[in-house]
Amino acid sequence: MTRSLLPLAGALLLAACATPRAPAPESPPRLPAAWQTPQAGAELAADWWQGMADPALPALVDKAWAQSPTLAQARARLALAQAQRGAAQAALGPRFFSQVSPNRGQMAPPLSPSTSATWTVQAGWEVDLFGSARAARDAAGARAEAAELTLAHARQTLAVEVAQALFAWRHADAQLELARRDEALAERLAKADADAARAGTLSAAQAALGQTLAAGARSATQAWLEQRGAWLQTLALLVADDAATLQLTQAPLPQPAALGVQQLPATLLERRADLAAALRQWQAAALDADGTAIAERAPQLSFGALVGRGRWEVDGGNVTGTIWNLAPTLTIPIFDGGGRAAATASARAQEAEARAGLEAQWRGAVAEVEQALLRWHAATANRREAETTRGHWQRIADASRAQARVGLISGQALARDERNALAAGSAALDAAREQTAAYLQLVRALGGGWTVNKI
């Protein structure tokens, strides 16, 4: 019987189709041929945060990478995907197991109880003639690669978020210092106006205005105090640590240099781990669809076998001997009420969804870079203008202090000029924060320093 099945198995092997291949990575159609706002500048480094000249940022990024629950979840998903890839690979080969089966019983009342015992080694193998199991293995491999890329993207994104929170804290801390100085000046002016009103040299309405401005300065101080605390909590959440343990010292906001953005939009696939992960997910869906389509129409050939020894009690004596069995099985799909066709249609729909998702994500990535470039150009120009204005007001305040020392202007006039200088300094801080935020947005849009060579 075994020999009679060999020609059938050989014919099936010769008729087997090639293993499905994952789709090649191609640029989605109708992407822009070039950036609308290309920019010359330095290449984004993989450890870009080291070049931000901030004393705390590198250590905070390292702490976030080591302790973040978000990264722990991504690592667990990667381990799961790798285990599933291993299981899919194991399904391609034969399975062996051993079984020991002692038995004692009475089969029928007239018969005496009997004893038997067998020990066997069993094997089973479903031959992947047409490639459906290999497609499932390759799909699991693509998903494992996608999980690895997702982890890389999460790491780069977390580094950007830590930098955003730290620089927002630095901005709020510097603004709080200016607000406290402004509050002291406003209180001094309000007191002088109140004294002048009591002396009859200033109207009550003008004195009340001074009190209102002082109250506004006090409110601004409280607002910046709240913002600084909120950003400290955000930073602690990102690095998975207590806010009380974050020993941050004052430092100026960085002045980042322009990043070079001259590559074609289609090359974002080589720079963004999330796009590469979406590509792998699409490839996995395409392999699943091919494998399901094969399983719908292809016959399945499996082999089962066992060999072992047994001992039986027969007519008061014992019989021992070798037992064996070889059982090839050929399963041919005939009719299942449309279940397999529905599974194939479902897999094809999932592949189409993944392909459309990849294209949408790719287009979104291009738009993110363009938006980040526009924001960077505007923020850089605004910071330059704000610094110029701050310098003008600082020189005016310095001149007023010199005039006040020789009695040429009153203390109230000096305080007002100093408040104007502080307001200009606050505006310059806002512009510096916006430029830093625009830089980090561009870093994120360009992939956070990841490259395809890292996989």
TrEMBL record:
Entry coiled-coil feature ranges: none
Matches recorded under InterPro entries: MdtP/NodT-like, OMP_efflux
SUPFAM superfamilies according to UniProt: Outer membrane efflux proteins (OEP)
Keyword Membrane: no
Top-rank lineage group of the source organism: Bacteria
Keyword Iron-sulfur: no
Keywords: Signal
Signal peptide (UniProt feature, chain positions): 1-24
PANTHER family (UniProt xref): CATION EFFLUX SYSTEM PROTEIN CUSC, OUTER MEMBRANE CATION EFFLUX PROTEIN
Family per similarity comment: Belongs to the outer membrane factor (OMF) (TC 1.B.17) family.
Protein name: Outer membrane protein TolC
Organism per entry: Roseateles asaccharophilus
